[in-house]
Amino acid sequence: MTRMITVGAAQMGPIAKDESRGQVVNRMIALLDRARRHGCDFVVYPELTLTTFFPRWFIEDETELDQWFEQEMPSNETQPLFQKAAEYGIGFTFGYAEIARDDNGAKHRYNTSILVEKDGRIVGKYRKVHLPGHAEHEPWRRFQHLEKRYFETGDLGFPVFRAFGGIMGMCICNDRRWPETYRVMGLQGVEMVTLGYNTPVENPPAPEHDAVGPFHNHLVMQSGAYQNATWVVGVAKCGNEEGVPMIGQSAIIAPSGEIVAQCHTLGDELAVADCDLDLCKSYKESVFNFAMHREPQHYGLIVERKGAVPPPEG
Ligand code: ING
């Protein structure tokens, strides 16, 4: 028996600062049309996919900052995507900047992703936990990376959702670099993790890493997939966006860790693969049978300790 989902990795090229959400949604729908022609059941869009990657700028005015966020979802601008997808019977996931209100009406800002089933219902939400970059303006940088300033740490943990005939999970960009992300979902039986990313080619604090940035991108997603016996679909917003080049290489990765489909441009592009969720089984029941092989009694430091503490000198 196979539980096949045909997945479209819908990579997006640069989104200009002055590009409207309507224009972006039209590009997303063009990719959805292409996905339909390929017989896709599910389409994965990037992180913060409705606007340019605004954390690259230091924004002091709150009103100016707010205009990069969505206060409702679906919104008027995104409704056409939800409608077209439901018409086609195609599910999707995409990332956006979310303003949520708590019970006291206080504003909270998150880097968010939603999972939408084939009938257009939002069946899952995730808020980015690992926020990279910095919280204060650092003028020495050619560009800022102010996610720690503009977003709060996600408050939903790493949930999984029964959808598309399997167990689906989400994470976002920097989350993919942390093994804990995949393992928490792996411990819930996840079979497909989807994620979007906006990854600059240059990482100003460590320029010596830039040459191996694309290698690191696939390394972390392939290991996350294999070590947790899950599919991983990682989709870029890429190309030269407002003067900041970002990596592409969107990929669909099998539980074996193999890349089964990949984008090869830095623009709007669809990579497609037939993903049999039952391919997770042989890994979950053998080498990564967590119940049989894990020894949590020795893993305490992973939860108890935040930063590394080396042994005493001498
Ligand atoms: N972007 C980058 C990412 O984790 C980064 C930030 C780049 C971290 C390069 C380390 C090295 O892919 C986001 N948006 O998290």
Describe this structure in words.
This protein has 314 residues and is of the alpha/beta class. The chain has one domain: Carbon-nitrogen hydrolase (Nitrilase/N-carbamoyl-D-aminoacid amidohydrolase). The protein is built from 9 helices and 14 strands. It has helices at 21-37, 62-66, 79-88, 147-150, 179-186, 213-227, 281-284, 290-293, 300-304; strands spanning 4-11, 42-44, 91-101, 107-116, 122-127, 160-163, 166-172, 192-197, 231-236, 239-241, 244-246, 251-253, 259-262, 269-276. The strands form 3 sheets. A 6-stranded mixed sheet has the order 5-4-3-2-1-14. The radius of gyration is 19 Å and the shape is globular. The N and C termini lie far apart (60 Å). The mean pLDDT is 98. It binds D-[(amino)carbonyl]phenylalanine. D-[(amino)carbonyl]phenylalanine binds next to loops.
Characteristic terms for this protein:
14 strands, alpha/beta, globular, six-stranded mixed β-sheet, Nitrilase/N-carbamoyl-D-aminoacid amidohydrolase, 26% strand, 9 helices, 314 residues
